[in-house]
Description:
- The model has no long low-confidence stretch (mean pLDDT 82).
- It contains 7 helices and 5 strands, in the order αααβαβαββααβ.
- It has a domain at 2-52.
- Helix content is 47%, strand content 21%.
- The longest helix has 58 residues, at 31-88.
- By secondary structure, it is α+β, with helices and mostly antiparallel strands.
Amino acid sequence: MFTIILIAVAAILLTIGLVWLIDKFLPSSFKPVLIIALWALIVFLGYQTFNSVYKPIQFNQIKNKRYTQVIDKLIDIRDAQLAHRQVTGKFAGNFENLIKFIDTAEYTITQRRDSTIIDEELTKRYGGVEMTKDIIIIDTLGFVPVKDSLFKTSTRYKTMMNLPEGIGPAGAKIEMKAGTLDQSDVKIPVFEASVKKDVILSDQDRDLVIQENQVVSVDGVNGDRIQVGSLDEVKTNGNWPKTFGSNE
């Protein structure tokens, strides 16, 4: 982009030089039309130069705003999925089941306490001398609805699969999958929710979107999509920097 700007500025300066030469050496009868044409070219090149600087700035502003809105949705999905795993031991494979879970599931509130009881086996072994052992007792204190814990009075979880208004083509949604990974003969639940940058920025300049898909930066969202979780790794963090919101 910087090279394009330099070329445009050089062209503007050259055109201004031509105007001066024409004004100085060309016969008067030819001057008006050529000078007007050259000034029109100067205005056009100036406009193009301005656009080459302004369009990326505007693109980044739109991109960052949309990314923040989409990431808020992905954070809600992650929170809901982590609650689902905590209660059921696995992740939900689709949004219908995840929403139903939030509407109906409850957290169990427990309390752990230490206690000491008679160890009957050891007591018998030592001829009736009372022997004791320490145990942990878990008491159930009550239940709390998952919905109240995560979303309080908000119902936004019912539409967490939809992209925010004004983002992406009509009907575009966040994709979500769940499964398991085998590690040391243990099946570990995993999930992934993502949306492609092409979808989020579908109405933006194509060349700038292609550049964004190739981003590799600590301050940017790397790759061609925004994603939380993974089907290939045991992780539930997002691929965005913390400037856009918590990624863990």
